[in-house]
Amino acid sequence: MSALVKVLQAIYSDEPFSASRNFLVSAIFWLVLGTVAGLTAAALMVWPDLTYGVGELTFGRLRPVHINGVLIGWLSMGYVSCMFYLATVLSGRKSLWSERLGNITMIAWNLVMVFGLLSISKGITEAREYAELVAPFDWAVLLALILTGVNVYLTVLTGEEKKWYVSLWYFMGALFWFPIVYIIGNRTFVSFEGLNDAIAGWFYGHNILGMWFTVGGVGILYYLLPKYTGNPLYSHTLSMIGFWTIGMFYAPTGTHHVLQAPVPEWLKSIAVISSVFLLVPVLTVLVNFFQTMKGKWHLAADHLPLRFAVAAGISYLLTCIQGPFQATRSINWYLHFSHWVVGHAHLALFATFSFIVFSATYFMIPRITGKKIYSRPLAIWHFWLSLIGWIVMLLGLTIAGLIQAAGWHHAIPVDQWAIEMEPYMLVRFISGILIVAGQVLFMINIYKTVFDASAEQVPHSPTGIAYV
Amino acid sequence: MEQRVNYLIAGVFVALIFLTIIFVTAILPATTFQPKPTPGAVKYTAQEIRGRNIYRREGCFYCHSQFVRKQDRDMGEMVQAGDYVNETPHVLGTERTGPDLSNIGGKYPDGWHWAHHIQPRKMKPGSIMPPFSHLTEAEMTDLIAYLQTLGRNRKVPSWIVPPQEIRDDYHLIAEAVDVNSAAAANAGRGIFQQNCAMCHGVNGQGNGPVSTTMMKKPANFHRPFYKAYSDAMWYWRIAEGVPGTRMPRWNKALSDEDMLYLVAYLKTLPLPVGTSTQEYEVTEFSQVNDPADLSRNFYEIESLNKGGPYYYGGGRSK
User: Fold this and answer.
1) ipTM for the whole complex
2) Three-class SS string for chain A?
3) Is the minimum CB–CB distance between B213 and chain A shorter than 8 Å?
4) B242 contacts on A by Cβ (under 8 Å)
5) What residue of B is the nearest CA neighbor of A205?
6) CA of B262, closest CA in chain A: separation in Å?
């Protein structure tokens, strides 16, 4: 009984940073669940009759569970956790504007995830890619987003610090943009007919990346890198240019997902041009990343959170070389409809943005709980399993995508080349095992740290010292 | 305080820019882009709408697209904007792990779809489509009714043909050899035994010794599907090879005449002994619950019965 009371106290608490901690702990649970769903879906690509007769475990239902689990569950909740922590620290406050509101948001968000994923796997779905949750959940997510926004905005506005660090700009931008994107893109609140539904759908599908994951992730990276390296952020001006141009160039890019569908040509042109112009914000981030790292690369050998951040920065470089070029008509013409794009998506969302949240987790957890991370070897295993996992996955999916694209291009019937994909699907499955194993170790490591009362105590340090 | 005002101005500015861009790219198209319905736009019946909802519920669109692009050569008529006026919410799809389904309607009989949804690999060896055996009988009926509408109203398209430049080449060289003559076929048999039998087998059944090492097995030319090949198609596959398989480009090794002899020989290979041309009709649901007795060839035979090459390539039986 007392355990239950303790749990209730922990999730409905108003102690400093409790909302951030609770968000992170639940995010990691959804990370493991989402990646396991993805791994099962990957297994079905190799052994399609594995779940014969079980509707809940067919590919068409596991895929949305995977996507919603890792995007809305893991990555978004992880971002909110980082935003809560960093907004508090950067605005010079002791705690959030309202930790209790933050915790209520956390409970609501988790309930949405539990019932949302259950309903998706039972076939109750809107069947809109990346927006599968049905209307009541859309309302709940929107409410949770707005509550998060209110909390972060009020935290920053009532803070001691009057000069906002660039990360705060990014967070506040993300929390302003994303609810708007969500309202339009989910098509629960506004509706479109025929192909306009597809245009709005991809407006959402791309901007959940652009206006939420990119903006949030870059904001977190801009805080962590100077902390870890001890170098100041190379250029504040560049980071602001990046901020404004993300807003300008990301929003119209969605139509490049339906570049050969019969949607208006002017819209496609805007999408392609702004996709290429995305190189501007990307370059600002990369210049800042490489220049801030200058002279401090050797630190990554020992400093595990920095190692994650460096891996994320380099993956960001790769993703953003791929992205704009894939979106041009001549390359999209060949690569569209292939596993190449799936590889690209994992590169962006796992290798870049998830790694940023991993880094932030190892940074924040000791500062929130006052305990040293449970195990350094586990963290090292987590790093290498995840890193090797995504490299293998990217290679497998990229090669598979090229074979597939050649199949479409040469008008070879699917059943003739599908069998050629088998080894690459197996590679993808194996890489999935590596990644899932890494995330399970991560979960054990962080949960041990958070829930084990006997862990080694550390002081709340304003520097980037790694307690792992 | 001045700092706050500056931030406020900046914030309003961000909001305005962002809202303008959103208006232009997400809202404006909905008002200006109103294509007129084309004949390709299907008006669904209640049953077909139920089927479409099952298509969406089971996530079929994650692996099957529903738009034919300019560069897709074997998928039938290209789609137009007006085809989609009744398609809300859209199921365009963004990945093709499986084939495009814009023109799938009428390509296979209902019975084939029944069996294929329950045991995909019985009907399409090598396919990785999930089995949908968990659907009820009523759901399956609805789903198939929907699938049979896809592309229903588009023009009957031609199936895969060699590119124009290959056809031009072929007509230039075809005069040298009469590919319908027994003499040419006889000459081709020797060339076949020397060059092709290693993989395709001495009888062209795709069972040569090297075939055991191959993941994608060599073609069995006795399959009814190949009876639909045009001469230029044979020539294209021989000369340029088959991408995605181990079939090499024989124009690097053989002369034009030799390749034409091969065409003549391959055209003479018969259908397998005992091929039934009887039309297969599924009448009972229980029949397809255990589709083990459905031979993989029946759909090819059926399509031949209806007078055309429907094995792939957007043809239809209606």
Assistant:
1) 0.92
2) CHHHHHHHHHHCCCCCCHHHHHHHHHHHHHHHHHHHHHHHHHHHHHCCCCCCCCHHHCHHHHHHHHHHHHHHHHHHHHHHHHHHHHHHHHCCCCCCCCHHHHHHHHHHHHHHHHHHHHHHHCCCCCCCCCCCCCHHHHHHHHHHHHHHHHHHHHHHHCCCCCCCCHHHHHHHHHHHHHHHHHHHHCCCCCCCCHHHHHHHHHHHHHHHHHHHHHHHHHHHHHHHHHHHHCCCCCCHHHHHHHHHHHHHHHHHHHHHHHCCCCCCHHHHHHHHHHHHHCHHHHHHHHHHHHHHHCCCHHHHHCCHHHHHHHHHHHHHHHHHHHHHHHHCHHHHHHHCECHHHHHHHHHHHHHHHHHHHHHHHHHHHHHHHCECCCCHHHHHHHHHHHHHHHHHHHHHHHHHHHHHHHHHHCCCCHHHHHHHHHHHHHHHHHHHHHHHHHHHHHHHHHHHHHHCCCCCECCCCCCCCCCC
3) no
4) 412, 416
5) B94
6) 21
Question: What is the pLDDT at residue B30?
Answer: 85
Whether the CB of B160 is below 8 Å from some CB of chain A: the reply is yes
**A416 to chain B, closest Cα gap in Å:** 7
pLDDT, tens digit, 9 for 90 and up, residues B106-142 = 777 788 888 899 888 877 777 889 999 899 999 999 9
With CA atoms as reference, the chain A residue closest to B241 would be A410
* Prediction pTM value: 0.81
Number of inter-chain CB pairs under 8 A, A vs B: 235
Q: How confident is the model at residue B168 (pLDDT cuts 50, 70, 90)?
A: confident
Comparing A52-56, A61-65, A348-352, B296-300, which segment has the lowest mean pLDDT?
Answer: B296-300
* Closest Cα in chain A to B8: A157
Q: Tell me whether residues A60 and B58 touch, CB distance under 8 A.
A: yes
Q: What is the mean pLDDT of residues A380-395?
A: 96
Residue B89 forms contact with A (CB below 8 Å): yes
pLDDT of residue B1: 58
pLDDT at B297 over 50: no
Contacts of A123 in chain B (CB under 8 A): 57-58
Report the range of poorest mean pLDDT among A325-334, B100-109, B126-135: B100-109
The pLDDT assigned to A115 comes to 95
- Nearest chain B residue to A413, by CA: B312
**pLDDT (tens digit per residue) in A157-187:** 998 888 889 999 999 999 988 998 999 888 8
